[in-house]
Amino acid sequence: MRRGKAPSSRRAEIMHIYRCYAPGGKELTAKSLLEFLHKEQIEIAASERTAEQMIDKYEIHEKARQERTMTFEGFLRFMESKDCSIFNKEHTTVYQDMEQPLCHYFISSSHNTYLTGDQLLGRSHLFAYVSALRKGCRCLEIDCWDGPDLEPVVYHGYTLTSKILFRDVIVTIEHHAFEVSPYPVILSLENHCTPPQQEIMARYLRGILGNRLLDMTVNNNFSRELPSPNDLKYKILIKNKKIGLLQDNVLRTGTDRQGEVGECEESEDEESEEETPKRKKHFSKSEKTVEKKQKKKITVAMELSDLVIYTKSVKFISFSHSSGNQKFYENTSLGENKARKLARNSGCEFALHNSRFLTRIYPAGSRTMSSNYNPQEFWNVGSQLVALNFQSLGLPMDLNNGKFQDNGGCGYVLKPHFLRTNETGFDPNCLQQNFKPVYLLIKVISGYNLPVPKHSKGINPYVRVEIHGAPADNCRKQTDPVKRTSLNPRWDENMNFAIQVPDLVLVRFVVKDQNSILSDDFIGQYTLPFTSMKKDSSLHPIFILTAAPWLIPQDVRRVLSTKQESAMLNTV
Questions:
Q1: What's the pTM?
Q2: What are the strands, taking DSSP E only, across 272-421?
Q3: What is the DSSP string of 4-69?
Q4: What is the residue-wise DSSP string for 324-354?
Q5: In a designed cystine with 427, which of 7, 255, 347, 525 is the match (CB 3.0 to 4.6 A)?
């Protein structure tokens, strides 16, 4: 077979594009490849040197490299590479303004981080913290309880989940906190320990984390707003109850606080949504009533209280109360059910609140199997710490992973301007006329090498494209299934979307197998922010989706073809 000649069964649709720039069976020259990059990929900054580098990188034939040409095999390798990703290269590194206050960012957040399974019998494991941190998570949860021999333990209280030592958790976090991101890590303590063991926790935090622990304001200064991610690089913050004001920390500097305690009100909303369901298995009605009354006041060891700087947990009462009373360094936690009601009934107030203060959202206690809610509805109102069970795969974590691959995967994504200011009055449930729609046209053309289950005679694959964002934008469309084809299915179907608030939108591509007997089987997916998609200069970019056998978790490739008025989204 002559060099550059490929079997007709091997990606004929890509061969067609190749021949548009290498007609007559000739090979693709560096000049023609550059033309392709300019016209189809909209890589305006590309030069002939760029094209030659692509040839050197992807061409497999030595003679072709020497002649500065690219065979079809090299072109195919190029098309299946990260250099053709639909994801904007500029967004694979930190490119956003990192000098804004912490409350102006979406922050990747985990719930019950220690668990590897369900919340009743699941195993607690240190690797769960390592896994979350390596995925860019910047807010970890630690459920702390009294353990034997004055060793605090971490587990899901009042259940049969296994226990790990608090000390080991902190050592693990110290080792892995900044492997993938230099930006601050928040340790959200769900603290059930008595004061003596709280003091042990404080000493472990100081002794193990050392200079990485933030135990004083930035530069010992006080301001009226939260510091920025840049201000807090390589720092670990403690989120917990705190006695007194932030200014008191300066007055207490150098003071021995051992044995001192203080009282504060129950700050979390967890009593009704997270803790009560699991306690029903262990307490009678009268015992729960007594317990609830006793929990109105929480005793906090001052040694631990003094470690809380910019993330003091306080109880949410109302938006009007927060507006008049909440300090900039105080944050609230809301269960998903209460937060959902507020988002739907008071969306504008919720967004305004989140422009000033940090808010953490967590799953309802009824989710004993560690399932997740849809995080999009809380991002829509600017909630920063939308905590999910990272061990549970599915749509919510697909959206979370897609959202936080933006900005270099550093775990911090700058919120849109209308969610950072108190001037716009943005309400995702009632969009104003000044939001002009953006039109997206996607063409789903083909796939290849889709995985087939064992003992199956074949699959009937189809592609579904989902838009997740403000309620007005939420929509999904899908192709017809292709019968009994996995090697190279062809759909050739167009989809049109009008997007009102593109800054909030995530685009999710899902490949499924239509099964008339059972529910449709999942084959793979890929999710990315709409604002991170490479865009055609036209108003109507079109994409081809092609899927490979790796369940479409990571890389999506892209090429535009002017003659076809299309772009290709090629997933491997």
A1: 0.88
A2: 297-301, 312-313, 330-335, 359-362, 385-388, 412-414
A3: T---TTS-HHHHHHHHHHSGGGPPEEHHHHHHHHHHTS--TT--HHHHHHHHHHH---HHHHHTTE
A4: HH--TTEEEEEEHHHHHHHHHHSHHHHHHHH
A5: 347
Q: Which residues pair with 301 in a beta bridge?
A: 261
As given in the structure block, the two tokens for residue 50 are 């760029």
Distance CA 92, CA 95 (A): 8
Determine the straight-line distance between the first and last CA of the chain, rounded to whole angstroms.
27
Distances (CA, A) of 156 to 115, 252, 370, 433, 559: 8, 34, 12, 47, 48
The CA distances from residue 171 to 127, 203, 214, in Å, are 12, 13, 16
**How far apart, in whole angstroms, are the C-alpha atoms of residue 459 and residue 162?**
41
424-463 pLDDT per residue, tens:
789 999 987 677 889 998 888 888 888 887 777 789 999 9
Report the relative pairing of strands 236-239 and 185-191 from DSSP bridges.
parallel
Other Cβ atoms closer than 10 A to 2: 6
Q: What is the CA radius of gyration of the chain?
A: 27
Q: What is the pLDDT of residue 110?
A: 98
Among 44-48, 123-127, 402-406, 540-544, the least confident range: 540-544
For residue 105, CA distances in Å to 101, 188, 262, 382, 538 come to 8, 17, 32, 8, 31
Instruction: List active site positions.
Output: 111, 156
Q: % helix / strand / coil in the chain, to the nearest 5?
A: 30, 25, 45
Q: Note the pLDDT tens digit of each residue in 123-157.
A: 999 999 999 999 999 999 999 999 999 999 999 99
